[in-house]
Write a structure and sequence with these properties.
7-stranded mixed β-sheet; globular; binds zinc ion; binds nicotinamide-adenine-dinucleotide
Length: 344
């Protein structure tokens, strides 16, 4: 089969790979119908994650079930399914608490050794461990380009808001308007916030946020702190989502959040960065962070997406053939596109 493989910084190649086969009783084998490129793939693409050369990338996917192990109950051969970017065992101490993102045996598709060496989904076929937890039947009427957001970008955007414990009537700022930030913005709206302030420096992404009803702030042209203060009667946002994964974005998030407020840090920080802990201390900020519990959120997120309550707008801007993955990665990296779907 053909698969998108990591070849080194800013280099991916579509190569032939051995077809995966069922290995465990609770595995499923899927034919990938569509797989997205995520901001997390860019961390690998930039060479900032120790992903092995030749490893298959991708962790956002919709597929058709080709085979299931004899212990799989919730999906069947022939069904259209979507899944989460990470797997969980369902039985360890973390999973028993519902903290699937803290599963002791968690694996992440397409990441490499630090993700349990689980080959990615930007391929013709993918092996899906613990299929009853990882996969869901895709609701009829939910198109591929929305369905594949549920187990990653939307699950993470929803998590960013849920983990922050935002209350109706509060204000939310989102730093970084890639698919994750835009999904967080729609989740904040759905949570009954009084205002959502969306910050980025890419005009086309600010435009999508504006259509979602957010007050948009162009970080390259305006003083984000001054604008947020203006929009919040001088107090700052109750909750700020950092959906970038950089020192600059985290600093902005800490500055624009009000005293006693929460910074919800879902952007992946692959390297240490300096933050002003004095500022965090003086403002008494609460910081919630880490991988999103996408397994736990999946049914709720799908229900809300199907009902149109979580509607991220036109996040998938391009569909390309798997063979065009090198061009797709370049374009996404240059922020010329929002999410790109690769179709094998
Ligand atoms: P993306 O690269 O498409 O989006 C990042 C956006 O941030 C871009 O639009 C960029 O212009 C903007 N940006 C960069 N620096 C900024 C700054 N200082 N101020 C304001 N905006 C800035 O990525 P994405 O797919 O939306 O993912 C966002 C982050 O979420 C990534 O770090 C990704 O790894 C992470 N992620 C985390 C989880 C999780 O479980 N926690 C899951 C999925 C993705
Ligand atoms: Zn992702
Ligand atoms: Zn577990």
């Amino acid at each position: 089969m053909r698969a998108v493989t990591f070849q080194g910084p800013r280099s991916v190649e579509v190569l032939g790979r051995a077809e995966p086969e069922l290995q465990c009783h609770d595995d499923a084998l899927i034919r990938v119908v569509a797989s997205g490129i995520c901001g997390s793939d860019l961390h690998i693409y930039h060479g900032r994650v120790p992903t092995a050369r030749g490893f298959t990338l991708g962790h956002e996917y919709v597929g058709e079930v080709l085979a299931v192990g004899d212990a799989v109950r919730s999906v069947s051969v022939g069904e259209r399914v979507l899944g989460t970017f990470a797997t969980a065992c369902g039985t360890c101490a973390g999973c028993r608490l519902g903290l699937y993102h803290h599963c002791h045996e968690a694996r992440v598709f397409g990441l490499g050794p630090s993700g349990g060496s689980l080959p990615g989904t930007q391929a013709e076929l993918a092996l899906v461990p613990h299929a009853d937890l990882t996969l869901r039947r895709a609701p009829d009427g939910l198109p591929d380009e929305l369905a594949l957001l549920a187990g990653d970008a939307m699950g993470t955007g929803y998590h960013a808001i849920a983990a922050a414990g935002i209350e109706p009537g509060e204000t939310c700022a989102v730093v970084g308007l890639g698919p994750v930030g835009l999904c967080a913005a729609t989740a904040a709206k759905a949570a009954g916030t009084a205002a959502v302030m969306a910050i980025d420096m890419v005009e086309s992404r600010l435009e999508v946020a504006r259509a979602l009803g957010a007050d948009v702030i162009h970080a390259g042209e305006e003083d984000a702190l001054a604008r947020v203060m203006d929009l919040t009667h001088g107090r700052g946002a109750h909750v700020t989502v950092e959906a970038v994964g950089s020192a600059g974005a985290l600093e902005t998030a800490c500055r624009i959040t009000r005293r006693g407020g929460t910074v919800s840090l879902v952007g992946v920080h692959v390297a240490p960065c300096r933050v002003d802990t004095g500022l965090i201390f003086r403002k008494g900020l609460r910081i919630v962070s880490g991988l999103a519990n996408v397994v736990a959120h999946l049914d709720r997120v799908l229900a809300m997406m199907t009902a149109g309550v979580l509607d991220p707008g036109p996040i998938v801007t391009h569909e390309l053939a798997l063979a065009d993955a090198p061009d797709a990665y370049e374009a996404f990296d240059r922020r010329e596109t929002l999410k790109i779907l690769l179709r094998p």
